[in-house]
Amino acid sequence: KPIDLKIARTIQAPLDDCKGNRDKNCAGAAKPLAKSEIIKQIAVALERLADIAEQTANDKHHAPVTLEEANAYRWDPDMPGLHPVVNVARVPLDLLKGIDDKREQLLQNSLQFARGHAANNALLWGARGMGKSSLIKALHAEIEASNETGLKRLVLVEINREDLSSLPELMQAIGALEARFIIFCDDLSFDKNETSYKSLKTILDGGLAGRPQNTLFYATSNRRHLMARDMIENERSSAINPSEAVEEKISLSDRFGLWLGFHNCTQDEFLAMVGAYIDYYKIDISTKELNRRAIEWAATRGSRSGRVAIQFVRQIAGERGQDI
């Protein structure tokens, strides 16, 4: 990389100079450099490195953001800017069964936001495979496809949990843009020694600069309080002040105005999920055989969820020579 070559040359120059002056076999070699001169040259090299680092940071900080290629993007702080995701992996909103109340609440919240009205950050927590992340992606597509007048452009931006410390940088990059942004973090949770939650807390609280009016934060998690229960108990039992030991991390979930809990589905809800997928993909199979095999499939997996349902439907489609 060009920056690596710059750094390498900057470091190597004084070292080569020192080596050349020490090499007595070298024709016309100069006298060995004084210790003070060597230190001076190293200091100059370090100043050059500082200038290079500052320039790189400025280039990264001022990376232009454009929204012409897609309506969904991925944020990567190591490659500054928003990277378009043209083909988002998602299903139609109507296919998400068994979560009707959660779907309506989050859709209404998102519509309020797209209309330019007040809306809440949302935490979708609960059972695995029950459509938490699928719901966020599906309702974004639903709103983008809406013909309702007055809706502002709604852009979905995914950020990895490991990159939460760069949230202030992301907010600064998009805060002045006309579009509205849902910042989406999947599978959010925190381990004992993590501190990246502080950046998220600042954004959710508003901080001194405040959260930009054109951004919302949606997160999914298997944990209601974003920490494992045994971790919470361990920290409380070993802390000098147990009541404050993990309060800061636990209270992070309280900063989401909208909590939506997802729980394991019943057998009837599971069969409704399977049936919806079968109808959508136009797979020919009798209801009796479908239900029997679906129940057997769920039993072998030890769980019922939307994820298990689509895995089963994928198996049925493959047996019939179909692709979904």
UniProtKB/TrEMBL annotation:
Question: What GO terms describe the biological role, i.e. biological process, of this protein?
Answer: proteolysis
Read off the InterPro entries from this record.
Answer: DUF815, P-loop_NTPase
Q: Does the keyword Hydrolase apply?
A: yes
**Matches recorded under Pfam families:** DUF815
Q: Which Gene3D superfamilies match?
A: P-loop containing nucleotide triphosphate hydrolases (3.40.50.300)
Q: Which keywords accompany this UniProt record?
A: Hydrolase, Protease
Q: Per its UniProt record, what SUPFAM superfamilies does this chain match?
A: P-loop containing nucleoside triphosphate hydrolases
> May I ask which residue range the UniProt record assigns to the signal sequence?
none
Gene Ontology MF term list: peptidase activity
Q: Does the keyword rRNA-binding apply?
A: no
Supply the PANTHER family for this chain. SLR0930 PROTEIN
Q: What is this protein called?
A: ATP-DEPENDENT PROTEASE SUBUNIT
- Which organism was this protein described from? hydrothermal vent metagenome
